[in-house]
Amino acid sequence: MPPVRNLPPGYTVIHPNRDKAAAKVMKAIVVLIMLASVGLMLIVTFGGWSKLQGLKPLNFAWCLLFLVLAYYVWRWKRGVLPIAAALAVLVLLVTVIAGTGQFGSGSATSWFDRNTAGFAAPHSIFGGKGLSPDFIGLMVVLLIPVEVVLIVFAMIAFGQGWNVEIEVPIDEAKRGGRPPIVPPAEPSAA
Question: 20 to 30 A from 108, CA-CA: which of 7, 40, 98, 188?
Fold first, then answer.
């Protein structure tokens, strides 16, 4: 239950930092980067379905989480930005391992290594021939800078103070083009 706000009569709450062009641009950039991450992850998941080892449910979970977080960022929920950055760090770690074939067990193979003799072509989620290993490898490698950029931009957006609230007279808020947020009426004592 949200806390009860005790505003003086005739006053409303505004969020002045949300009106700044930099905050609006940053919000749009973070959401677009998150959607690009989802798109790249889905391309890898659908195109290399038969060769993903145990990450299929995790890829869908990450995509769903990124979509939910993007929705909340679009709704000016500043608190999800560090969560988005932390999730981007996890995805970054997995993509570095998948893209390079390093840091894993002795049998770790990058997507680029799968384009040599002895490796079967991946099949898609729909049962047909999947995408080429080189293309999937390129999508995985593209995820690396996308996740780094997401981490940076999410933290910059977090520092913009989207949550700052100021109490102003309702007339002043209307002159500024902001719709007044009217607190709920206090229940009367019976």
Answer: 40
